[in-house]
Amino acid sequence: MERGYWIRSKPVYSTLVWQQQANAHIVLVEGSAGGLAAMKLFQQMHPEHPTKVLYARNPVVQQDLSIPLSKVVPDALLMFETTEESLVAFEAHLSSACMGLRIYVAGSERFIWQMAQMADKYGIDDSDIIKELVGTLARPIYCVHCKTISYEAHTNIKKCDGCGKQLFVRDHFSRRLGAYMGLMVDAEDPGQIPSIEEIYP
Amino acid sequence: MSTFKVVVSNIQQITPLIKQFSFIREDGASFPPFSGGSHVVVAMNINGRLHRNPYSLMGSPQAPDAYHIAVRLQEHSRGGSAYLHHEVKVGSQLEITYPNNLFALDKRARKHLLVAGGIGITPFMSQIDDLIRTKANYELHYAYRSQDHAAFTSALKEKCAERVHVYVESEGLSIDLKALLSKQPLGTHVYVCGPNAMVVALIETARSLGWPENHIHSEQFLAPPSGEPFKVKLAKSNIEVHVPAEMSMLEAIEAAGVDAPYSCRGGACGRCELEVIRTDGVLVHQDHYLSEADKAAGKKIMPCVSRAKCQSLEINL
Ligand code: FES
Fold it and tell me: Global pTM?
């Protein structure tokens, strides 16, 4: 990667911090790392406004934080096994929410952008969501050839789940698709695949 | 700046203080369509001095047979509104700029909440046409002092039916901003136009309730405030211009025959920004455009409304 070079489309993530000016809060977290981000948030304080926490326990649970979380925010916590269930609950919440709801998300990029896309459906821009990337750097990849999105790209080159082409994982990110662009790596020299390395652990 | 030569085709007294003026083009051609919320700048030659005031366009933006503006007679008019009210007659000729929009509806909004105070209703008169035509979800909250000031209320009730909410202050009604802004569905955008106190209160209430900045829209054209006279040195044109107390810096520069950029002439758009080279005094910023940091840095000035308290000011023009 070239030094000092910055791709504008690449999202920048921060740390979850309560927004003081608010009407209500919703915190969406994924897995143990996300659960920890929520725990850290409640270490800052318990906000005075109505607050909900949607915890998707998700993939391989190393450490299940549902017990400590349920101790910290017993009345605010909703627990789900998968992102999909969490999304359904999030949508239900959005459809009846009022302006002033602050949205906080902590999880993988796949999770963050699934939530951002749902918020977008309700007229909330992703720039107004506080996002923390935790757990994994795995990238969702959009195949520019067959338009399939493959998830869990941990390596610089990944086989497309749709067309099977070897895709080079780029830094260009589409907010609309919630994925990085993937381009066939051996388009010029068929069969010439550079070495595959794990760079998104 | 491109302009139209227009003829006043109709004048209507809407309230004791508000007149509506309709313009047609002098060359008989039709006007271009515009987007709801647009304004034009009307140029008036008053006793040999050129005045230019911005006014919102009203009426249908789609097929404008004529352009319409509503003008409130200002108590401390610097000439513009008094001139339009007292001197301009049907058949009078004026010059107006092409429409420009600093108060456009946000297409991503799931609901539009329009809040107007007094004559601040004017930009909404065209926006409402756009909202009705696109079948958008909207609500209009319109506050004014007394029934005497009920400009356009019946027209609005006819157009917007139950979507318009009227608050007559003399009858003890006012908009409860906090209550209104706390119960808007997610994805709502709010638009406010009216007296300064109302605009400021709305923006602050929305912010404190957690509305993101990009969901809050306001329009406020300031009349150039008067102040102490001072001198401006125009570095590029190499001339010195005297700015009298009751003239804006922009007007004084124009009167000296120098073309300076402008659009809203009300401290809102940023188009007139000039670079300050040096001053022996302080800048008196009065615009809504520059950030606090820019204002403090003193390197930029909006000459349509801002002035300087100094002996001389040098700008890069
Ligand atoms: S002309 Fe718009 S800010 Fe001066």
Answer: 0.88
